[in-house]
């Protein structure tokens, strides 16, 4: 019996080894094969045009919480005068006073349009960090092969690159096959409720259903993903949801700090937060992550390729391995982040109340209601009131990697960056595209810029900048992408 049992176990092990090896050796590259394109010359005036836009302080919300419209009006007038062909041939519309919607009419009205999203606004610069900037953040200075300024990466680079590319196409008397919309919101950095959302509502009322939408999200990088040496272009096919809960403990007995009670308002609320941190929602390999594994796995060394080719066996290992990294953890679960804690008036007074703000980013496949119920069950303390914030965004639908939009974006990336591995992924932050779910089935979130060392930290940080060459490549990308949309149309009537 023992011998037969050993033979059975060896047979099962051999069977699993055969399956693992078969899956590994048949795990083929998903990358589109195209010929690379030689870069065309971009006029140097495009560099100064971009730098000039960075001088406009189009800040969503400054330190005193006031909105200053003058900068947005000035930027709008600058775009009008700098891109005369766009002003002549594209229909421009003001949405909610400050957001811009351009329509470039195509030849065939029966085709669904394509929408490109960018935003005019930028985040503030903390006054305490000004001395750390090598170049003043709102001068739009060009030096040392870089264009410096707040918004150079996030994300006036997309807005201006689109304008430059389309102005160039208009100079060549080009007209697209399908309508193309440019949607430039003015308050993305504070949620887009008055900008991107209003644009989306206007398009929905007009019955617009886009072939696909492209917004910010992923980018190109090298060396940031473990065990893959090639440059990687990460195209977001979904983004996480957003929920903020306010936790309140009120009407607790106060008194003198010299005679503390067994439980204070601060202690009760702190315990609730510790419970949330220690009992998080489960790790999951969501659909976007499965898509990433399928696209990236074949390009990895043999051992990693074996793991990625056999999720059925190694899914738990992947979860445990990547969950130790904050970025990996963020794509594997709904995250919990306590961000604000308020309590107390004086060091010798026991506070009678405490408040905290906890932010959740929700994994696709889960809902805000499930997160709320999870929080209630974990805290399990009637003294802690749990109040949802006013802004809630469910996780986005997952866009197809087999669609015209994804394939055309992938093709364009590979034409300009031939060694780059294109992979779908989950965007863990929020974008204006969250307002456009009723306007298209497919939204892709990608910034066609190759990030260098430290660039991720520059977004919303100190010394934001972009290299002149990276900006020019961005123009070339959108120029070719628009042409590829039409070329693919003629090849697939």
What does this structure look like?
With 493 residues, this protein is α+β, with helices and mostly antiparallel strands. The protein contains 15 helices and 17 strands. It is 37% helix and 20% strand. Strands 1, 2, 3, 6, 7, 8, 15 and 16 form an 8-stranded mixed β-sheet that branches. A 4-stranded antiparallel β-sheet has the order 11-13-9-14. A 3-stranded antiparallel β-sheet has the order 4-5-17. Helix 1 crosses helix 9, helix 2 (45-53) runs antiparallel to helix 5 and helix 13 crosses helix 15 (468-491). The N and C termini lie far apart (66 Å). The mean pLDDT is 95.
Total of DSSP H or I helical runs spanning 4+ residues: 15
Main beta-sheet strand count, sense and barrel state: 8 strands, mixed
**Rg measurement, Å:** 26 Å
Distance between the termini: 66 Å
Low-confidence stretches: none
Strand content: 15-25%
Query: Would you count the extended β strands for me?
Result: 17
Mean pLDDT: 95
Structural class: alpha+beta
DSSP helix fraction: 25-40%
What are the key terms here?
8-stranded mixed sheet, 4-stranded antiparallel sheet, alpha+beta, 17 strands, single chain, 493 residues, 37% helix, 15 helices
In summary, what is this structure?
By secondary structure, the protein is α+β, with helices and mostly antiparallel strands. It has helices spanning 2-25, 45-53, 70-82, 84-89, 156-171, 196-205, 265-278, 287-296, 302-308, 311-323, 326-332, 368-379, 404-416, 455-458, 468-491, and strands at residues 91-95, 99-104, 114-119, 142-143, 146-148, 180-185, 212-221, 232-239, 241-249, 255-256, 335-343, 349-350, 354-362, 384-388, 421-427, 443-450, 465-467.
């Amino acid at each position: 019996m023992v011998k037969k049992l050993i033979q059975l176990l060896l047979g099962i092990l051999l069977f699993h080894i055969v399956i693992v090896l078969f899956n590994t050796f048949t795990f083929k590259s998903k990358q589109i094969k195209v010929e690379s394109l030689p870069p065309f010359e971009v006029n140097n005036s495009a560099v100064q045009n971009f730098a000039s836009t960075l001088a406009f302080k189009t800040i969503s919300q400054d330190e005193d919480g006031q909105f200053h419209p003058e900068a947005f009006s000035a930027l709008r007038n600058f775009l009008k005068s700098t891109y005369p062909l766009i002003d002549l041939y594209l229909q421009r519309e003001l949405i909610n006073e400050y957001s811009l919607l351009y329509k470039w009419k195509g030849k065939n009205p029966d085709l669904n349009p394509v929408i490109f999203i960018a935003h005019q606004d930028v985040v503030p610069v903390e006054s305490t960090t000004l001395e750390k900037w090598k170049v003043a953040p709102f001068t739009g200075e060009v030096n040392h092969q870089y264009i410096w300024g707040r918004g150079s990466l996030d994300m006036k680079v997309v807005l201006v690159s689109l304008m430059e590319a389309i102005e160039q196409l208009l100079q060549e008397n080009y007209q697209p096959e399908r309508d193309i919309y440019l949607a430039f919101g003015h308050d993305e950095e504070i949620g887009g409720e008055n900008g991107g959302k209003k644009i989306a509502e206007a398009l929905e009322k007009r019955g617009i259903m886009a072939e696909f939408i492209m917004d910010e999200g992923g980018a190109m990088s090298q060396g940031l993903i473990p065990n893959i040496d090639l440059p990687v272009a990460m195209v977001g096919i979904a983004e996480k949801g957003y929920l903020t809960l306010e936790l309140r403990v009120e009407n607790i007995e106060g008194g003198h700090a010299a005679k503390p009670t067994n439980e204070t308002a601060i202690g009760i609320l702190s315990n609730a937060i510790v419970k949330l941190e220690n009992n998080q929602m489960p790790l999951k390999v969501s659909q976007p992550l499965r898509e990433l594994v399928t696209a990236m796995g074949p390009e990895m060394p043999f051992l990693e390729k074996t793991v990625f080719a056999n999720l059925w066996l190694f899914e738990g290992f992947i979860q445990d391995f990547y969950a130790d990294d904050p970025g990996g953890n963020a794509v594997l679960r709904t995250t919990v982040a306590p961000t604000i804690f308020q309590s107390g008036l004086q060091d010798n007074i026991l506070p009678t109340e405490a408040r905290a703000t906890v932010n959740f980013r929700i994994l696709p496949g889960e809902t805000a209601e499930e997160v709320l119920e999870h929080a209630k069950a974990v805290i399990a303390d009637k003294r802690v009131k749990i109040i949802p914030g006013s802004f809630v965004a469910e996780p986005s639908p997952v866009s197809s990697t087999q669609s015209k939009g994804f394939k055309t974006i992938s093709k364009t990336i590979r034409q300009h960056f031939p060694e780059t591995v294109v992979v779908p992924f989950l965007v863990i932050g929020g974008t204006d595209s969250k307002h456009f779910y009723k306007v298209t089935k497919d939204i892709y979130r990608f910034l066609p810029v190759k990030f260098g060392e430290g660039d991720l930290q520059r977004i919303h940080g100190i010394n934001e900048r972009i290299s002149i060459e990276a900006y020019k490549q961005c123009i070339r990308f959108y120029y070719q992408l628009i042409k590829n949309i039409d070329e693919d149309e003629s090849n697939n009537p």
